[in-house]
Specification:
heterodimer; A: 175 residues; alpha/beta; Glutaredoxin; five-stranded mixed beta sheet; 6 helices; 18% strand; B: 134 residues; mainly alpha; Helicase, Ruva Protein, domain 3; 2 domains; 56% helix; elongated
Chain lengths: 175, 134
Amino acid sequence: MKDSTKWAPLIAFILLASALTYGLAKPDNRNITSKMIGASVPSFTLPPAAAGLPGLSSAELANGKPHLVNIFASWCVPCIAEAPQLKAIAQAGVPVVGIAVRDRPEALARFLGRNGNPFRAIGADDASQVQMAFGSSGVPESFVVDGKGMILQQTIGPINPQDVPGVIAAVQAAR
Amino acid sequence: MRRILIALAIVAAPALADSDLPPAPLADTQLPDPKQEAQAKALMETIRCLVCQGQSIADSNAELAGDMRAMIRERIAAGEKPVVIRAWLVRRYGAWVTYEPPLDSATWLLWAAPVLLLGLGIFIARRSFRRRRA
């Protein structure tokens, strides 16, 4: 056997082992990005989730103005941490609308009373159907939707204080 | 007493990650038509749960998995084909959501590997047998 072929299996093993070690050591990314970015908002109509606020439909998201769609729930702890940022975004003039996943009106009213209400409308998504239609896999998630109802951007997890200017800019640029 | 309460709160904290709504009607109830239920079950076993990301939605207790099962049963009961429902989910979450990866530019090697490896094995075996005879 020639020298070069003798070493081939060892070299192949080292290459394979290093590729596998690299794959195992690389931090795991468990975020599932929606493939709906760049597509129109799926057609939906949700009934009001809280007293005194209208529900939400896909037609309203295509009314010519960009929106921030926040998928949240009163039972979701990170959503409490996100509330001040949503308030700041709403105060900057961004229309913030909500989709409340598997929520009860009284629990939602308590959540809004305690954490403030940045929402112009909240739709009740009792069986996560609209959440799935958006390609969202958890709460909270936020989508920037332009005036024609096109999904432009997704934020997975709470919007943190340092993300606020970026989100406001993204919605304003969506006009 | 206080200590017990604190310990209980720590143990019970993960429960806060769930809503207090009951599961959707069709999440854990079989369809009356056994043929449709079999179709739905077969599809559920090949759809990945988005919360417990190593389980299929048929095995997962996550609420979103329950809502996905309910969605699949509702659509099958309405006469939709499993292929269409799978495509609907793949459109939203990517091919990652299905345990039956489609044949495309990223996965062709996965499908071709058995044939390629078998061919390589035959090639190596033939060469070494021929050498021994000589």
